[in-house]
Amino acid sequence: MFRLHANDPLAPKAMNMLEESGLFEVTQEHLDKEELLKIIPDIEFLVVRSATKVTADILKAGTKLKVVGRAGVGLDNVDVSTAKELGIRVYNTPGANAISAAELTIGLLIALMRQIPRGTNGLKEGKWEKKKLKGHEIYGKTLGLIGFGAIGREVAKRALAFGMHVVAFDPYVENTDLDVELTKSVDDVLAKADVVSLHVPLTPRTLHILGEKEIEKMKDGAVIINAARGGVLDEQALYDALIAGKLAGAALDVFEVEPPVDELRRKLLGLPNVVATPHIGASTYEGQERVGIEMAKKLIEVAKEIE
């Protein structure tokens, strides 16, 4: 029997699957780094979501560690290279929360274009700003997707249903069965899009994939959506472009600094044409259950393999 610790517990159904498999002695509790370091030498399977950073020192301290399961898409909170060096397997669940993230992306877009948060806040403050809140339809607009994986595809499906034209760039995608124009470069997307939405993981190659030079290539009055990862968008460049009037607005679910309490992020969030949520792209009951079940199945399969 393997000792499994879920430092970021999965959905109850998934945790039950792990416990009932008979393969694991399961513990579940979010421990801070110092506490996790104390127990990691005895752990063979470590399960995390986004809240836990699986750093090199944690991995090196895990002398019995065989598997790290990241319940979710991104692996930017796991030191994958160190894990590989140590022979520790790393698994994630790409696609399991794609619908949740895609729905939030479309929600952010509509909220931005129709100024829904400002209308809501105004009413709560006793204001009736009907004449000030003239927005824009998304029908007929061009949505540019940077990244066309599982989430990008789900966003495209929903955008097409709204009557948007969709263009996308992904170096790993050569064709698609959707009515989407695949372009040859990020620059092609930027030149055509009224709305640019990011759907890439955070890696050294994608850090600030949308920066000052790229924003300058966008249409005047375009908007940016980032529900991918903080860091893929240069937020200083975004702020400058919003202040200068180059961009008409932005909708953000993720930030390079989270929580976004530093001076730059406070100024950015203070702009009237910025809509934001606190990194909730995958935070639906349905999405988390799918993620948890997929992760549990993978861990059970791996445990049987190496038992």
What can you tell me about this protein's structure?
The structure is a single chain. With 307 residues, the protein is of the alpha/beta class. Helix content is 38%, strand content 17%.
Tell me how many strands there are: 12
Strand order of the largest sheet: 8-7-6-9-10-11-12
Spans of at least 5 consecutive residues with low confidence: none
- Top CATH class of the largest domain: Alpha Beta
State the CATH topology of the largest domain.
Rossmann fold
Question: Roughly how many Å is the radius of gyration?
Answer: 21 Å
Distance from first to last alpha carbon: 8 Å
> What is the string of helix and strand elements?
EHEHEHEHEHHEHEEHEHEHEHEH
Q: How confident overall, as mean pLDDT?
A: 96
Tally the structural domains: 2
Pfam family, one: 2-Hacid_dh
GO molecular function: NAD binding; oxidoreductase activity, acting on the CH-OH group of donors, NAD or NADP as acceptor
Domain D-isomer specific 2-hydroxyacid dehydrogenase catalytic: 8-304
Keywords: NAD, Oxidoreductase
